[in-house]
Design a protein that fits this description.
Helix content: 40-55%
Strand content: 15-25%
Largest sheet: 7 strands, parallel
Shape: globular
Number of domains: 1
CATH class: Alpha Beta
Order of helices and strands: HEHEHEHEHEHEHHE
Number of helices: 8
Strand order of the largest sheet: 3-2-1-4-5-6-7
């Protein structure tokens, strides 16, 4: 099946949050190779600039923006910069989230400030980015919003209550946004990855826990970025034009929705 034409690819702008490392970085590189104009957003300026250099080495275009997705002013300034640079936004991947730095603990031991910060980034950040960029999609009556949730909330994973709560909320947000934005030609879908191995260290996950996770999958191997890149590419493309409000689980058959 033929993907987007070269002409359409170069005409389309994709914004990816949490782009400096892990899955976000992988998405940036995938879409850069496909010819999109990429806006890479993260708080880690040095790592973000390195990603932008790697994209440019491919001969692709990348606009790195240091943004706190949970801050209204920061997000609004990013939207202004994107409009000024390219005048449009066609695809938004709401990938930024707090997870790898969280320490597993019983819910009653979660500090309130940590609870607030996780929900601010994982939920409010998704809301703010979508609110800021949808007006640019509405101009063309075409757009794709891809919200990254997690299969963790499907299994009711313990000791990550703020994270699982935030990712459940992302699915609810996705469904409501799909209803509101459908008339504008904008699809909104949620991606639910399983536990994925990236370069980001996870000190709270033991080798035994990894083995147990793999043993529970229908496809019994580690999950990596390549298992998700193609799915995100599909959801961003014309091929997914009649899919919206959906939650797509990509975890090797660990959870069934």
């Amino acid at each position: 099946m033929t993907d987007l034409s070269a002409q359409n690819r170069t005409a389309r702008v994709i914004v990816i949050t949490g782009a400096a490392q892990g899955l976000g970085r992988a998405y940036v590189m995938r879409f850069a190779k496909e010819g999109y104009r990429v806006v890479a957003i993260d708080l880690q300026t040095d790592a973000l600039n390195q990603v932008a250099l790697e994209v440019k080495a491919l001969g692709a275009t990348c606009l790195p923006l240091t943004v706190d997705v949970s801050d209204v002013s920061s997000v609004e300034q990013a939207a202004i910069a994107i409009e000024r640079e390219w005048g449009s936004c066609d695809v938004l991947v709401n990938n930024a989230a707090i997870f790898s730095t969280i320490t597993m603990r019983p819910f009653e031991d979660i500090p309130v400030d940590e609870w607030v910060r996780v929900l601010s980034v994982n939920i409010t950040g998704t809301f703010l980015m979508t609110r800021a960029l949808v007006p640019l999609m509405r101009r063309n009556k075409w757009g794709r919003v891809i919200n990254v949730s997690s299969a963790a909330f499907l299994m009711g994973r313990p000791n990550y209550l703020h994270y699982t709560t935030s990712k459940a909320a992302v699915v609810g947000m996705t469904r409501s946004l799909a209803r509101e934005l459908g008339p504008d030609g904008i699809t909104v879908n949620a991606l639910l990855p399983g536990a994925t191995d990236t370069e980001v260290p996870r000190g709270t996950v033991t080798p035994e826990q990894k083995r147990q996770q793999i043993a529970m999958r229908c496809i019994q191997r580690e999950e990596g970025p390549r298992d998700l890149e193609g799915v995100v590419s599909f959801l961003a493309s014309d091929d997914s034009a009649f899919i919206t409000g959906q939650s797509l689980v990509v975890d090797g058959g660990y959870c069934f929705l």
